[in-house]
Amino acid sequence: xSAISSSKPPQIRTSEAKDNFRPLRKIESVPADKYRIGxxxxxxxxxxxxxxxxxxxxxxxxxxxxxxxxxKLDRNTFTVVQYGALKSDPERLPLLAVVxxxxxxxxxxxxVTGGVHGYETSGVQGTILFLQTAASxxxxxxxxxxxxxxxxxxxxxxxxxxSSCLDPNRSFGPSPSTHTEESAAIxxxxxxxxxxxxxxxxxxxxxxxxxxxxxxxxxxxxxxxxYKRCHIPDGFYLVGNSLDPTPExxxxxxxxxxKVTHIAPPAEDGTLIEEPVTQPGVIEVxxxxxxxxxxxxxxxxxxxxxxxxxxxxEGVDGDQCNRAQRAAITGALDYTGTPGWRARRAExxxxxxx
Length: 354
Description:
The protein is an alpha/beta fold.
């Protein structure tokens, strides 16, 4: 059955008032057996991928909304490092990291990332908000490395994939054959820092209604498959590592975030995005096997945040989502930076071996 419909690109909605910087792709619901590109049972080839690329459009400016904000950070506290540039437009799409100046080799080193999926706005803007308003308080405790926008091409076009129809958040595995331009650049950059052991990594994401109406149907079509609808969580949640769980760490973060926004309740079957809920607002997956960005450092205290900007609950908007991301980051740092965290870690490890 043909799955080709109109080639007209989806419409973009721009939120009102203080949320007007957060355009969200909005289209009519996509039937499970139909997407505007490709055919059921036939994975995309070069022609379909070119068709998809041709219908993408620039909807916002990475230079104005991201780069300009990073350039205004306190230079006495942070250095903005360009660790690469995307080949499609090196001048407009530089790859930037923010590194704390007061670096000590014997200090715990933290990585914060956002915008691995470019369309997930608060992953980028929430990370920048952390840099602008909270990060300086942690400079004396940690070496900070913050990459606010891993995928600037996707940010400008409000897309999940990069320009090669690849998902950057499935490209951080050990095999170079799975790497994207974005993940390869980050891996190379982190290697230059010579960090012996990373302490914490928080990777900031969103789950949106357009996952159901655009991005997941596109992924199914890419593989020539039927799309099966799933439950979109209404609220914030975290994704931990099922092969090395850190429940107390995640609970600490959730308690910080619930002061800012609501925590996602599970679906009727007790899951979030079809994964069992291990505690309120937390699911676990094998992050290394999936090649998630959260696996890039190999540290134990890693997590992926997910906030829901399309919630119809009162008060939910782009600003609240950004503040929720900041709360998650500060919660992660406060948990591992407070007195007694080493004892807590030893207690958890001992209990896990019983």
